[in-house]
Amino acid sequence: MTGGVEFVDSLRDSESTAARVEPATSADLPAVRLAYADGRVIQREQGSAVWPYFTGAAILNEIEPGLLCRVTAGDVLAAVFSVAYEDSAIWAHKECVALGRDGLRMDTWAANAALVTYYQRLGFELVGTRCIVADRRACKWHSATYAPNVHSWGGSSAQS
After folding, report:
1. Are residues 22 and 55 in the same domain?
2. Does residue 156 belong to any structural domain of this protein?
3. pLDDT value for 144
4. Using an 8 Å Cβ cutoff, are 17 and 73 in contact?
5. pLDDT value at 60 more than 50
6. Is 158 within the bounds of a domain?
7. In a domain, 115, yes or no
8. Among 13, 91, 133, 145, which residue's CB has the most CB atoms within a 10 Å radius?
9. Alpha helix (H) ranges present in 13-143?
10. Which of 82, 115, 132 is the last residue before a domain boundary?
11. CA 13 – CA 122 distance, rounded (Å)
């Protein structure tokens, strides 16, 4: 891998650029593993926190209940993401509820400046951070939870 160059080039050369989002299947496992590996390369190049290695069994545990989704453009896998209805280890749930924003949440490493900026440009606001390890004295990485800024999205907030 060279930091996603082959992946991006194959997406750019794809016959169809219309993106489709659909549940991943067990047949997608090799492509999903490749996408995660490519993501780790990019994270290392950017000096970001790097995702751990996910075993095939762990990925299939997300695929089987329909929680892992794939985004395709033509016949090219463009992205994967997981749907999580609960994840108290990383989500600032109480903060979202207090702001009247109990719904869509995005998370990233708090130190991932590029993604933080991207989320903010899309109208998301930081609502809280979480230490990822059990002992906060050893906490090196924090997760940041972002929720839509309802004012920038034309909605209203319970706190307005």
Report:
1. yes
2. no
3. 64
4. yes
5. yes
6. no
7. yes
8. 145
9. 29-46, 56-63, 93-98, 113-121
10. 82
11. 27
